[in-house]
Amino acid sequence: EPEVTQTPSHQVTQMGQEVILRCVPISNHLYFYWYRQILGQKVEFLVSFYNNEISEKSEIFDDQFSVERPDGSNFTLKIRSTKLEDSAMYFCASSDEIQAFFGQGTRLTVV
Amino acid sequence: AQRVTQPEKLLSVFKGAPVELKCNYSYSGSPELFWYVQYSRQRLQLLLRHISRESIKGFTADLNKGETSFHLKKPFAQEEDSAMYYCALSGFYNQGGKLIFGQGTELSVKP
């Protein structure tokens, strides 16, 4: 069964550094999403992406964040100048217009 | 405001006992409601959608618009049901992807 794949599974970075989280959505899906879950809190929507542009974003998704689909398969989330409070589990998802399929997540730890 | 509330962080039952995981929501339009499950060290996966009205792994959930609830029920819990359960909603035409999650309820089924 096709799956959404995320790399790396765990990333540790110094505060102020840039990180790129990578996702390979399911190949025939057209809608892509990023979510995050801070430890002990709920899963929060960050951004949705369709037709090579952002279709919706939350208040969390400020100028520090950007998304890109650099080629036909990858979908990336870039976080510039990371802060301690960016430490969280980041989930990628893709949708077949009926339901969202989630990746296994990348745990980002900012030290 | 759009919100999903799961009042119980942890629900512990014995095998064979009935289970009800509570979910209440607040949404101004026509929502679509979901239950997602996350087994230990696995990804979030869709368990139920209200629109499909099906029973998966013995679980059912009925949308009650009057009470704005979408409680998840199973008459006889099994040990393999132990997992985190998340109630979520999206707008009706949101391609299933932009989701607002509840806090999650950890279900523990004891032998």
Outline:
The complex is a heterodimer of chains A (111) and B (111). Chain A is mostly beta strands.
Ordered list of secondary-structure elements with their pairings:
The complex is a heterodimer of chains A (111) and B (111).
Chain A lengths: L4 E3 L2 E4 L5 E6 L6 E7 L5 E8 L2 E5 L7 E4 L6 E5 L8 E8 L4 E3 L3 E5 L1
Parallel strand pairs in A: 2-11
Antiparallel strand pairs in A: 1-3, 3-8, 4-5, 4-9, 5-6, 7-8, 9-10, 9-11
Chain B lengths: L2 E3 L4 E5 L4 E3 L2 E3 L4 E8 L6 E5 L10 E2 L10 E3 L8 E9 L8 E2 L3 E6 L1
Parallel strand pairs in B: 2-11
Antiparallel strand pairs in B: 1-4, 3-8, 5-6, 5-9, 7-8, 9-10, 9-11
Q: Return the average pLDDT of chain B rounded to an integer.
A: 91
Kindly state the mean pLDDT of chain A as a whole number? 94
Distance between the termini of chain A: 37 Å
Low-confidence stretches of chain A are none
Which parts of chain B are unreliable, with pLDDT below 50 for 5 consecutive residues or more?
Answer: none
The percentage helix of chain B is under 10%
Proportion of beta-strand residues of chain B: 35-45%
Number of strands of chain A: 11
Helix content of chain A: under 10%
Walk me through what this model shows.
The complex is a heterodimer of chains A (111) and B (111). By secondary structure, chain A is mostly beta strands. In chain A, strand 4 and strand 5 form a beta hairpin. Chain A is globular and about 35 Å long. Chain A starts with a strand and ends with a strand. By secondary structure, chain B is mostly beta strands. In chain B, 0% of the residues lie in helices and 44% in strands. In chain B, strands 2, 5, 6, 9, 10 and 11 form a six-stranded mixed β-sheet that branches. In chain B, strands 3-8-7 form a three-stranded antiparallel β-sheet, with no helix packed on it. In chain B, a hairpin with an 8-residue loop joins strand 9 and strand 10. The radius of gyration of chain B is 13 Å and the shape is globular. The chains are: A mainly beta (111), B mainly beta (111). At the A-B interface, strand 4, strand 5, strand 9 and strand 10 of A face strand 6 and strand 10 of B.
